């Protein structure tokens, strides 16, 4: 039986651990929070991040990261993007047999602006084979076995297929891909556009602005992706358009919900108060702007979202500035 370690006890990590355990896989979940470990082992539920969702009885949890990954054939990296380097850096010395390491975190590392696959390559080096898993997938809907389709990507297609077979089951369909940059970038930047979509909703605006935002947001993500070497067709797929539509419109989206609070007039600090979950789009907004500047790519939506988040800019002024930009052709050359 394949042994899998899921590193990260948030809602998504817990959901994937439960999915794998119910598929008959031997799974251990590592969580930083002692209360999560205790709750999973004692009550078979993650009362902190996935409450009211009974977990597979065979799923167990630990607070010892080296114990979790030691001997695992597959390691799922599910920590928030800003913590992946630190968390997986502690796990790497305990890896054995060059396991498959699959990143399921959607974001950019704030300090370096790197994608998670690059962070994992730098921390694990030759000790692991690296893949990423992304696409439109709310944790709670996956937990409830709602039909879901995502993408597993790796530079080596054989590695992508290995990840594909690890996660695929009757309600969770995984496609394979080799465009790691495109799959990861789509998953990271869609959170920024989802924040903007929530802001529009919080302001009481309608369907016209949301449609314009999603469409131009996808164009913005694609521009940066091409500059980084991604295949533009990737952004028309599950990890691009699919994930963007879900996160910008779905009621379960943490990023859209946070944006809604900002649109209603709250500051970032007020909107985040009391929340233990992470809205990845917050850090990604600023990182995306910096990454765009590094590569000479204009990201007007990300820039305005970042200004709202960190500079106190009025959302209505941000919209006005976007609408009054210099006129140009829709398609770029």
Overall description:
The protein has 333 residues and is an alpha/beta fold. The protein has 2 domains: 3-178, NAD(P)-binding Rossmann-like Domain (Rossmann fold), CATH 3.40.50.720; 182-323, N-(1-d-carboxylethyl)-l-norvaline Dehydrogenase, domain 2. The protein has 15 helices and 8 strands. Strands 3-2-1-4-5-6-7-8 form an 8-stranded mixed β-sheet, with helices on both faces. β7 (148-153), α7 (157-167) and β8 form a beta-alpha-beta unit. The longest helix is centred in the middle third of the chain and has 23 residues, at 180-202. The radius of gyration is 19 Å and the shape is globular. It starts with a strand and ends in a 10-residue tail after the last helix. The model has no long low-confidence stretch (mean pLDDT 97).
Distinctive features:
alpha/beta; 2 domains; globular; 15 helices; 12% strand; 333 residues; N-(1-d-carboxylethyl)-l-norvaline Dehydrogenase, domain 2; 8-stranded mixed sheet; Rossmann fold
């Amino acid at each position: 039986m394949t042994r899998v370690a899921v590193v990260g006890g948030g809602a998504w990590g817990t959901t994937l651990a439960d999915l794998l355990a119910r598929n008959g896989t031997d799974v251990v979940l590592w969580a930083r929070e002692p209360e999560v470990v205790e709750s999973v082992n004692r009550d078979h539920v993650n009362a902190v991040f996935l409450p009211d969702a009974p977990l597979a009885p065979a799923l167990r949890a630990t607070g010892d990261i080296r114990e979790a990954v030691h001997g695992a054939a597959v390691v799922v990296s599910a920590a928030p993007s800003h913590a992946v380097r630190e968390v997986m850096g502690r796990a790497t010395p305990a890896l054995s047999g060059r396991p498959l390491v699959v990143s399921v975190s959607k974001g950019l590392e704030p300090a370096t602006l790197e994608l998670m696959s690059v962070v994992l390559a730098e921390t694990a080096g030759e000790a692991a084979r690296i893949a990423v898993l992304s696409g439109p997938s709310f944790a709670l809907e996956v937990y409830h076995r709602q039909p879901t389709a995502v993408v597993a990507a790796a530079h080596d297609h054989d590695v992508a297929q290995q990840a594909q077979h690890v996660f695929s089951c009757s309600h969770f369909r995984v496609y394979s891909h080799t465009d790691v940059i495109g799959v990861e970038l789509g998953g990271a930047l869609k959170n920024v556009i989802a924040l903007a979509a929530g802001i529009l909703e919080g302001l009481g605006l309608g369907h016209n602005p949301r449609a314009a935002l999603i469409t131009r947001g996808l164009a913005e993500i694609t521009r940066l992706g091409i500059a980084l070497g991604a295949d533009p067709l990737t952004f028309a797929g599950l990890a691009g358009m699919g994930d963007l539509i879900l996160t910008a419109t779905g009621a379960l989206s943490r990023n859209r919900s946070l944006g809604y609070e900002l649109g209603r007039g709250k500051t970032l600090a007020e909107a985040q108060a009391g929340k233990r979950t992470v809205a990845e789009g917050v850090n990604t907004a600023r990182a995306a702007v910096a990454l765009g500047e590094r590569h000479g790519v204009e990201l007007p939506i990300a820039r305005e979202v970042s200004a709202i988040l960190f500079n106190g800019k009025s959302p209505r002024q941000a919209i006005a500035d976007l609408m009054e930009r210099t006129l140009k052709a829709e398609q770029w050359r």
